[in-house]
């Protein structure tokens, strides 16, 4: 029998064409006009999975866009791996900035350009190809379940309920996800932590209308003055959040974690220059990497009010508005942080100002094991495919559904990505490195093949 390497090499052209056919489907979950395309993408996956050897592959209804579920059972005593991904993609606007049409896949400079190539159709397809190869060779010795949703790009609205209702059906020993990024080219990384999120809208009012600054200036409160004074109270000068109790549930980094994060390739000066900044700033006592991945934050995302047009208008604004989000870590819970921030805002409202604070989106943080058996297997699989040890990383962003999977199914999660941060996901000219296409299949083939022993 040919080696896996030889088999993959011979099949490469056909595999890329098959991926391209998947990428041509305009599965944009946020557009109601694309509902038929969403179902086309789900049907495409079921057909591909059945041809790959998954006799049990089906489209399941969720109340929104459908979910694709498939399973391959080798034995009751074998470990079970649950793979999660998504087939929906982001809108393509602005269309004029694409070099080639977003749903007409093209290969340029060893990169496959198309919407969804990197996020997340490409990585999902790698899993299917790895499993297809092992099934065909009779070398898959673990049970596998695949859960591929169609609503990740619009908040996974229906997936938590689906997980709750189908927890037994999805029961597994480990969850494997490839919807994260590598550290850089030929620099794989295993993400073991994700920050959570909570959002608030702040609306401030003073008088019942805007007032003439010549007639009333100096005698009445200015809504914009009040808002900037209020927002300034949220932080200490050294960068720490000034909200009472904000850090109560934060567990500081261990020495091992700080050592692992310090190994990541990063240069503060290059980072500063690349962003066009005159200086970096953040919570004292932590490195840039630690601040941006493993510490909680409170950010003002939007501030508006008063006259916005050309020229001058001499008014005293009677209302101002701000949007706030917090990134959360460890044991912080979004609802608790929202209430603490709301309490701070109400208690610090300037004289003459009336506040309305609206609580908005939330997502729990996730912190996984640093050295679980599945993580150790992922390290070996990356090394098998890339020839280097992967970095252990935490991501500053949020993937709320990861925490939901972990909480509902009570299983370890391995975040093993193959995309690069420079691949323009969510932006024009999204692309996927063909080097990571090749090496990603090999890494995943190794993971699934060796899991029977490693996860016992």
From TrEMBL:
Coiled-coil regions, chain positions: none
UniProt superkingdom: Bacteria
Annotated InterPro entries: Cyt/Met_Dipeptidase, Peptidase_M20, Peptidase_M20_dimer
Domain Peptidase M20 dimerisation: 193-350
GO biological process terms held by the UniProt record: proteolysis
Stored Pfam families: M20_dimer, Peptidase_M20
Keywords annotated in UniProt: Hydrolase, Metal-binding, Protease
GO molecular function: metal ion binding; peptidase activity
Name of the protein described by the UniProt record: Peptidase M20
Taxonomic lineage from the root: Bacteria, Bacillati, Bacillota, Bacilli, Bacillales
């Amino acid at each position: 029998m040919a080696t896996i390497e030889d088999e993959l090499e011979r099949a490469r052209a056909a595999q890329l064409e098959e991926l391209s056919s998947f990428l041509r489907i305009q599965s944009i979950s946020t557009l109601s006009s694309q509902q038929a395309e969403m179902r086309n993408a789900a049907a495409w996956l079921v057909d591909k999975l059945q041809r790959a050897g998954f006799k049990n592959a089906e489209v399941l209804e969720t109340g929104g866009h459908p979910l694709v579920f498939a399973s391959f059972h080798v034995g009751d005593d074998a470990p079970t791996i649950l793979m999660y991904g998504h087939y929906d993609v982001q809108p393509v606007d602005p269309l004029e900035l694409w070099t080639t049409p977003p749903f007409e896949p093209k290969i340029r400079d060893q990169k496959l350009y198309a919407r969804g190539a990197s996020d997340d159709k490409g990585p999902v397809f790698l899993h299917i190809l790895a499993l297809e190869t092992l099934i065909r060779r009779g070398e898959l010795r673990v049970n596998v379940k695949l859960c591929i949703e169609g609503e990740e790009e619009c908040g996974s609205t229906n997936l938590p309920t689906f997980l709750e209702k189908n927890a037994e059906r999805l029961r597994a020993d480990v969850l494997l996800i490839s919807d994260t990024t590598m550290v850089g080219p030929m620099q794989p990384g295993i993400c073991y932590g994700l920050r959570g999120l909570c959002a608030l809208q702040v609306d401030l009012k003073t008088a019942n209308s805007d007032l003439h600054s010549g007639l009333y200036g100096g005698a009445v409160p200015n809504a914009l003055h009040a808002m900037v004074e209020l927002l300034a109270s949220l932080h200490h000068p050294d960068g720490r959040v000034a909200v009472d109790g904000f850090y109560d549930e934060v567990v500081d980094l261990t020495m091992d974690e700080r050592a692992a994060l310090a190994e990541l390739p990063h240069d503060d000066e290059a980072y500063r220059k690349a962003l066009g900044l005159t200086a970096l700033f953040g919570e004292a006592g932590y490195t840039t990497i630690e601040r941006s991945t493993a510490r909680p934050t409170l950010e003002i995302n939007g501030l508006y009010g008063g006259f916005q047009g050309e020229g001058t208008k001499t008014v005293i604004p009677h209302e101002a508005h701000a949007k706030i989000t917090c990134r959360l870590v460890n044991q912080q819970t979004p609802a608790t942080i929202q209430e603490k921030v709301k309490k701070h805002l109400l208690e610090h409202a300037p004289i003459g100002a009336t506040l309305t604070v609206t609580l908005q989106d939330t997502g729990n943080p996730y912190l996984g094991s640093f050295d679980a058996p599945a993580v150790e297997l992922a390290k070996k699989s990356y090394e098998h495919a890339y020839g280097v040890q992967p970095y252990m990383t935490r991501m500053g962003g949020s993937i709320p559904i990861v925490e939901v999977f972990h909480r509902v199914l009570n299983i370890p999660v391995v975040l093993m990505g193959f995309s690069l941060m420079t691949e323009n996901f969510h932006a024009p000219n999204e692309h996927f490195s063909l080097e990571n296409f090749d090496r990603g299949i090999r890494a995943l083939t190794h993971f699934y093949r060796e899991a029977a022993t490693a996860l016992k």
